Hints:
Layout: H1 3-17, H2 22-30, E1 35-39, E2 50-53, E3 60-62, E4 67-72, H3 73-76
Antiparallel strand pairs: 1-2, 1-4, 3-4
Amino acid sequence: MNPELRRAKLAKLCEIEGFDDENDLFAAAISDSVCPAICCNPDNPECDYTAELEPDQDRGWCEVCGRGTLVSALVLGGII
């Protein structure tokens, strides 16, 4: 995934989840057993389907795209 798409998806995930910035999102995600994740399908970059998944998830199932394209916030941010 290119850096621009990674930043855009992380920003969109913050917006959808109601966090002011990625640092607030990371702080919340690190202290929980699940983590917000967003679809990062390169063939459908407009898909913003989200779900709560494992913090290290990088191929979660997108119910909209029907593919394993969900990536957790911690993976998007390079924390994991």
